[in-house]
Design a protein that fits this description.
The protein is of the alpha+beta class. The protein has three domains: 58 residues; 135 residues, Jelly Rolls, CATH 2.60.120; 72 residues, Phage tail protein beta-alpha-beta fold (3-Layer(bab) Sandwich), CATH 3.55.50.30. The chain has nine helices and 19 strands. The strands form four sheets. The protein has a seven-stranded mixed sheet, with no helix packed on it. Strands 2-3-6-9-10-13-14 form a seven-stranded antiparallel sheet, with no helix packed on it. Strands 16-19-18 form a three-stranded mixed sheet. A hairpin with a 5-residue loop joins strand 9 and strand 10. The N terminus is likely disordered. GO terms for molecular function: sigma factor antagonist activity. InterPro entries: FecR, FecR_C, Ferrdict_sens_TM.
Length: 354
């Protein structure tokens, strides 16, 4: 008597979860060939792949499969009413696709057509899939020097990255987690009381539900948060080894700078000035020249060097376009007596003669 052999349900479900994560971050040509071979090994592979994606609300990650799996478009894009038609189990890629599509939309009676050994495997695989944790899917976003870009996240939140910034986004069943790796970001958060929106920057953490705020970690050993809407909570990240400080609750118009484990709260009379970068400008209101050039450095591949120490504390005020370096240098010369000279990748600032 011939005995049907079925792959281990643990291997199948874990393999499906791994492929979902790979598909989400993008497959290489070699990985596409490997996936095609894996799917052809057993119709259960295709079923498990779609079942995992459906359970974790990640069916959109299967869209790239349409290149060599045309029917994937059906299960991803076209909602279909459940039907009672059972599909006989047969070998081959076509039957695997059909079974996968039906499985994704909840067809009743599919397993009754499988051999008895397959029925027990199917029940076991379904239980295993239900218990298997979704794969961690982390998406990275970044901008180049001088670039500012807005990204729409899957929950409807908006995230605007300032120049030379990078974040990692990971959404789970209980939390929307953002890691600010470097730079400055403005968040317009979609309301969801059941899923807090958490931003971690170094040793500090910012938590919100539905609000608008910016986080900046470009300062030396510091983090800055400005709130324009709603409320946010600022405290130490749970994993940090640094000294803890008391929780800080910010409301619109407030700003906190955390430096050397000490949060300092202030009121922003005009938050739009600090956030002018969102419209392509930087605004200075009497900051010393040393701070001005450090800020401008972020938007250009060139670096500034103040050759005359007496210039470092000159207060500078003005409204400058981030990409217009010539305008800044002209204003410094005409209004503040600061001369400039290009030397390779450096701009040397000195006192204007006379």
């Amino acid at each position: 008597m011939n005995t049907l052999q079925f792959p281990s349900h643990t291997d199948v479900t874990e393999g499906a979860a791994l492929w979902i994560a790979k598909i989400d971050r993008g497959l290489s040509a070699h990985e596409e060939r490997e996936l095609s071979c894996w799917l052809e090994q057993s119709s259960l592979h295709g079923e498990a792949l779609v079942k995992c994606a459906s359970m974790w609300d990640l069916l959109d990650v299967l869209k790239p499969l349409s290149k060599f799996m045309p029917m994937a478009d059906i299960c991803v894009d076209a909602p279909v009413e459940p039907v009672q038609t059972a599909i006989p189990h047969a070998g081959g890629w076509g039957s695997a696709l059909a079974a996968s599509v039906i499985l994704a939309i909840g067809v009743i009676g599919l397993w009754s057509w499988l051999p008895s050994g397959a029925n027990s495997f199917a029940d076991s695989a379904a239980n295993s899939t239900a218990q298997l944790k979704p794969p961690r899917i982390i998406r990275h976003y970044q901008t180049a020097v001088g670039e500012t870009t807005t990204f729409a996240l899957s929950d409807g939140s908006l995230m605007q990255l300032n120049t030379d910034s990078k974040v990692a986004v990971e959404y789970s069943a209980s939390e929307r987690h953002i890691e600010l790796i470097k730079g400055e970001v403005f968040f317009d958060v979609a309301k969801n009381a059941k899923k807090p929106f958490v931003v971690e920057s170094g040793e500090d953490r910012v938590t919100a539900v539905g609000t608008a705020f910016s986080v900046d970690n470009t300062g030396e050993h510091s983090m800055e948060v400005i709130v324009t809407e709603g409320k946010v909570l600022v405290n130490r990240a749970p994993s940090t080894k640094a000294a803890y400080y008391a929780d800080v609750l910010l409301i619109p118009g407030q700003r906190v700078v955390v430096r050397n484990n000490q949060p300092k709260i202030s009121t922003e009379d005009d938050p739009s000035a600090s956030l002018a970068w969102r419209d392509g400008f930087v605004v200075f209101n009497g900051e010393p020249l040393s701070e001005v050039v450090r800020e401008i450095d972020r938007y250009t591949s060139l670096s500034f060097k103040i050759t005359d120490p007496s210039l470092a504390e000159i207060p500078v005020g003005g409204y400058f376009k981030t990409g217009d370096l010539d305008q800044l240098l002209l204003v410094l010369q005409q209004n503040f007596g600061v001369a400039s000279r290009r030397d390779g990748d450096q701009i040397l600032l000195s006192k204007l003669p006379g």
